[in-house]
Amino acid sequence: MNEYILIFRHEDGQKVASPDQIQAWMKQTMDWVSGIAAQNKFSSGTGLPFEDARVVRPNNVVTNGPFGDIKETIGGYIIVKADSVDEAVEFAKGSPVLQGEGNSVEVRKIAKGDGTH
Amino acid sequence: MQEQELIPHLFRTEFRKITAVLCKLLGIANVNIAEDIAGETFLSALEIWPFKGVPENPVAWLYAVAKNKAKNYIARDHLFHDKVMPLIRSSSPAGHEIEIDLSAANIADSQLQMLFAICHPSIPVESQIGLSLRILCGFGIDEIANAFLTNKETVNKRLYRAKEKLRAGMVVIEFPPENEINSRLRSVLTTLYLLFNEGYYSESQDTILRNDLCLEAMRLTYMLIDNEQTDHPDVNALLAMMCFHSSRFEARKNANGEMVLYQDQDELLWDQELITKGVYYLNRASKGDSISKYHLEANIAYWHTIKEDVTEKWENILQLFNQLLAIEYSPIAALNRTYALSKVSGNEAAITAAEKLDLTTNHFYFTLLGELYKDIDREKAKENLLKALSIAKSQADKQTIQNKIDRL
Description:
The complex is a heterodimer of chains A (about 120) and B (about 400).
Chain A: E1 2-10, H1 19-37, E2 42-47, E3 54-57, E4 61-64, E5 73-82, H2 85-93, E6 104-109
Antiparallel strand pairs in A: 1-5, 1-6, 2-5, 3-4
Chain B: H1 3-26, H2 31-52, H3 58-76, H4 78-90, H5 104-118, H6 125-136, H7 141-147, H8 152-168, H9 181-201, H10 207-225, H11 233-246, H12 272-285, H13 293-304, H14 311-327, H15 331-345, H16 347-354, H17 363-373, H18 378-391, H19 395-407
């Protein structure tokens, strides 16, 4: 069993959401995460607030962001347990993040450190 | 409470509380900022709860986050820091950090004061209703659009204009001074009355939403009763009227969503608990020495909770409509008075009275005439009902009139 990180990429992270939307997203995200947890395959996860975000570059250059510089911002991630990347991809397909045009979920294996990956 | 129900519930109850407290703190001109901070608070919940689980005390969690966000906003926004803060600071005890008070008492006070601010006489009534739904009831734009049978863009535009009016009118969020309470309360009651009617008579097919509108109007009215300074007889009368009307909510529509007229309703569907509550508030309303239109309407609604067609009932209703018309004329009251007259003095007397009303653009007028002529002159009854049908606008009204024609 491996661990995979599912990274949510949002095309427009600063879009203002209405309470109704937040409510709908909350329910969908909870349903999605609980579905994975019910199979005992959910490790951890969190959303990443867009406020107070900074990008640090060489020579101590710090900018607010990453907005404007790149098209996509990371809105959060979850770590799941899966037998294969295909299984992790199946989990990712259910993410409500994908309902947003231009959004994506990146699936990456987490290195185990014992050389078996 | 199940998680699926918890989230919508929290939105409905907490969004408006956070908004009211922040609005009170930041001033009515910053109502958008207050709404944004409340919105961001729920956005934070979205970032955490699905992954870490819902906190043990979700409300306390939301309040803590809202406080932090408000403090951050105040510290960060320059305009705020330099222009608005000194004003806020000068009104709070010297040397104290800005306190964002989300205690039950301050929430109640802030909401009540917001109610007075939104229902300020300088704000147009339609704007008052929209703002009340959004800010005091926490309704989503979708829901407001649905209730008014319009689209989101229109609602957004209306709310925008309404907020501009609040800003331009420099309305202060405060409890009105003692000598103004009566006059200010009058415009608050008008809005609550219309808010209730919006739900009760709305043509929206969404029954749950319509019920919610009525419940919200009742909740806001109750908020006034709960405060000693606004616990006036006319407020109690208004709540009594709302209770009596709401008691028939279930009975007013059949399974197909069609209107069921009063005389055809199944009284077993009438909510006895609400009728009892109505009687309670009607008693409390009778303590003063003046009679408002709410007193009269509540009394009329009370008599309608008695299904039997006893003469006493219609005598009373007729007298009440007479008084109501003396205080404030409305076509619908004039028509209802005529119906009551037919029950007391017979159809011919009512027809004579009706023909003096001159309400020939009102489909209820012709519907009533049709009803009154039914057993006297079938042709005239039909003629009037057809006229009613030709000017009725809503599908529900047309259906009701068509049913009457078919039954002739």
